[in-house]
């Protein structure tokens, strides 16, 4: 009998499949390698949110302004912004502090045949320079920023945003009501199960994220966005405990 030539798919997320000592989740080389598969199978609505970032960017990108994708990972949200900007003359910047993510993002961006340049910065979004912004995206990034730094970051984004400009903020949220928290978490875990994750994978990833992904309530997000200088805040998408908001600066 010939030996099987079947090779495991290196791009499939099996990172939590075998029993392991709990360590904090990090955006390292192993995560970067499987990230497209991981985020699609873990975040309900991710495959809807990405194309809608293009639609929203198309509505709000102002010629001559900057557009920022903060925590761009492999550039999925950056590319959606690039296509939304189309032929307007904007400066598109993707920022991530994981060198493993930025290295792979360079590759994905080069494969996307489009004339608008993308400038990638391997920097901390808490430090990166922001100016004359019309569209800024934080697609599942703020949740990883330590809570004590979130206010200053959003103030900096709001003050760099031009009148009529927007912030697209997607986050995992928690709920005030224990019963809703329990139900929405169960539904999220069912989504992961339906996407082929085992109970062991779900529980080990949950432990790894416990100290690094710190969700807040929708009310906390909305109040802070308004306090930081956005005049209108709305939820444009929600699936279970994952939401995306649009925060608009008045024109
Ligand atoms: C869930 S991923 C974002 C997914 C991506 N926006 C997308 O739509 O595919 C979060 C990213 O934020 C980055 N990140 C977290 N904290 C950061 C910080 N302080 N500065 C820069 N990047 C950060 C991580 O390295 C990671 O790549
Ligand atoms: O909350 C979870 O269980 C997740 O796996 C979510 C999440 C995220 O929201 O960013 C966590 C880490 C990875 O970036 C992919 C997905």
UniProtKB/TrEMBL annotation:
GO biological process terms held by the UniProt record? tRNA wobble uridine modification
Which top-level enzyme class is recorded in the Swiss-Prot or TrEMBL entry?
transferase
Query: Reaction catalysed by this chain?
Result: prephenate + S-adenosyl-L-methionine = carboxy-S-adenosyl-L-methionine + 3-phenylpyruvate + H2O
| SUPFAM superfamilies given in the database record | S-adenosyl-L-methionine-dependent methyltransferases
Looking at the keywords, is Endoplasmic reticulum present? no
Q: Which UniProt keywords apply?
A: S-adenosyl-L-methionine, Transferase
State where S-adenosyl-L-methionine binds. Answer: 46, 71-73, 96-97, 124-125, 139, 206
Give residue ranges for domain Methyltransferase. 69-165
**Which InterPro entries does the record match to this protein?**
CmoA, Methyltransf_25, SAM-dependent_MTases_sf
Record EC number: 2.1.3.-
GO MF annotations for this entry?
carboxyl- or carbamoyltransferase activity; S-adenosyl-L-methionine binding
**Which Pfam families does the entry link to?**
Methyltransf_25 (PF13649)
Q: Which Gene3D superfamilies match?
A: Vaccinia Virus protein VP39 (3.40.50.150)
The entry's function note states: Catalyzes the conversion of S-adenosyl-L-methionine (SAM) to carboxy-S-adenosyl-L-methionine (Cx-SAM).
Q: Which family does it belong to?
A: Belongs to the class I-like SAM-binding methyltransferase superfamily. Cx-SAM synthase family.
User: What interactions and quaternary structure are annotated?
Assistant: Homodimer.
PANTHER family (UniProt xref): CARBOXY-S-ADENOSYL-L-METHIONINE SYNTHASE, TRANS-ACONITATE 2-METHYLTRANSFERASE-RELATED
Q: What is the recorded name of this protein?
A: Carboxy-S-adenosyl-L-methionine synthase
Q: Which organism is it from?
A: Marinobacter confluentis
């Amino acid at each position: 009998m010939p030996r099987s030539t079947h090779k495991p798919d290196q791009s499939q997320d099996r990172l939590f499949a075998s029993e392991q000592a709990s360590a904090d989740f990090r955006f390292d080389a192993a995560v970067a390698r499987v990230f497209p598969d991981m985020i699609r199978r873990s975040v309900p609505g991710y495959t809807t949110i990405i194309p809608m970032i293009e639609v929203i960017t198309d509505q709000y990108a102002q010629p001559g302004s900057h557009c920022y994708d903060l925590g761009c990972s492999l550039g999925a949200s950056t590319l959606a912004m690039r296509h939304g900007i189309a032929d307007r003359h904007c400066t598109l910047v993707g920022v991530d502090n994981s060198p493993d993510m930025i290295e792979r993002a360079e590759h994905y961006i080069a494969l996307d045949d489009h004339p608008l340049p993308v400038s990638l910065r391997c920097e901390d979004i808490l430090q990166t320079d922001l100016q004359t912004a019309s569209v800024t995206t934080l697609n599942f990034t703020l949740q990883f920023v330590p809570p004590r730094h979130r206010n200053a970051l959003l103030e900096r984004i709001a003050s760099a945003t031009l009148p009529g400009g927007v912030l697209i903020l997607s986050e995992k949220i928690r709920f005030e009501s224990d019963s809703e928290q329990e139900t929405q978490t169960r539904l999220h875990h069912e989504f992961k199960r339906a996407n082929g994750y085992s109970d062991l994978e779900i529980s080990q990833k949950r432990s790894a994220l416990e100290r690094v992904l710190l969700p807040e309530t929708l009310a906390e997000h909305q109040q802070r966005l308004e306090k930081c200088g956005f005049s209108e805040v709305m939820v444009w998408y929600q699936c279970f405990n994952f939401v995306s908001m649009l925060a608009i600066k008045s024109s």
